[in-house]
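User: Second chain of the day. Same drill as before.
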Amino acid sequence: MDIIRVMSEFRFIDEDASLHEMLAFLEKYPRFSVDLESDSFHHYAERIALVQIAAGGRVFIVDPLRVEIMPLAPLFADVSREKVFHDADYDGRMILTSLGVRPGPVFDTMIAARVLGKQRVGLADLLEEYFGLSVDKGFQKADWARRPLEADMLAYAAMDVAYLLPLRDRMEEEMERLGRLAWAREEFDRLVRELE
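Assistant: Same format as last time:
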């Protein structure tokens, strides 16, 4: 997957019809990657400001300030589909609070990195290690509730999910080779159970 292509090709979902088209597309896939951007650094009442989802080589960015995201609840609650996160603890809590569902089962690349004994477990660090990608995390604390969003911010948001599925596969292979996959899966399950 070419980095320029990923950064420029995503679908921005800001109307109900597009959201339903996205959900219909995602029905074909047994797993998808997900990330959230919130406005916690800039507003007192924390809320989800963007939902990024990738599957089947496509990236979607959903704008919860323009479209009702409650139709995403069954997608996150569907136990037949794996949700791949980097740091599912925070995003999982936001999904539970906002949509009333626990997003399980999960594969968490941050937990996988810890299980593998890595010193640096940030997403940018892992993308550099596994794919040689250099990712600017400058927008991490941006005001995601501000509209319109800059093109660079949307590209950043797309990158947060674009490589999670291949990263998951590489990390799973590594954990399996080291005999640590079962341990990681226990940690993934425990995280979902303990979401509050």
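The first strand starts at residue 11 and ends at 13.

User: Great, on to the next one.
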